[in-house]
Fold:
Amino acid sequence: MQQTSVINSHLLFIARQREAGGVSNTSKQFNWNAILEHAGVTAEQYLIKHLLSKKMKKILLNRKYKLLELLIIGLLIPTLVLVNRLAENVILILWLITVYGGSIYIKYHNSAKLKEVLNFQAFTKKNINIILIRWMLLTIVIYLITFYFYNDKLFTIQRQNPYFLIVIFFVYPILSALPQEFIFTTFFFSRYADIIPERLQILTSAIIFTYAHVLFINFIAPFLSLFGGLIFANTYKKTNSLALVTFEHSLYGNSLFFMGLGYYFWGGSVTIT
Structure:
């Protein structure tokens, strides 16, 4: 009822403007009827859409809504996946969240082009050297952890189906690393900057990234994810590059699968035949 009243007020305003000569049907600049007719909508439909758009924007940018959204993405969804044993659908869930987050990010938080969001300019010699040196050192740590504590998983894929490993190397960066880094870095730092103090943003990103891995129902996945989350959040915070942080994430992810610990990042129940 209230919405109808507002719409009628807008229509009445336009009508009065026309009568007063402020909005002329013959004016090239303010030919509202022609514009609306060309768009295939009535004045009432246009006003409804306009009012709903303004209301939706107000809701989506509200700090309380953002906090609720963060709790849903970072806590509720992983918990539901864990309780209902839906880890096998994790890729689909990641991309559904990415589509939701991407639509909000594009409309309300970033007007930059895709190449600026990816920011390939961050692939400098200095950044690449830091990432590769750190990755090589930590890959040795991953090997030692696998060798001493999970020896039965060491090089599992190579022994059972080496061709599957090649598929992982090419598919994992796009299907898994990319949506994860968009959600936990690009979207996170842009969307929640006004509700999380800057000094806590990297840690918070790492914590929700870690909790997102409890759904695999084992200790090793969230344990390693905490360190990974800190590394990836720090890289993005310094470079503002989705492409670079996805590249770094892919290096560690592929190393885990190569060594055998990737088993624990796929529901802890991967069967390779």
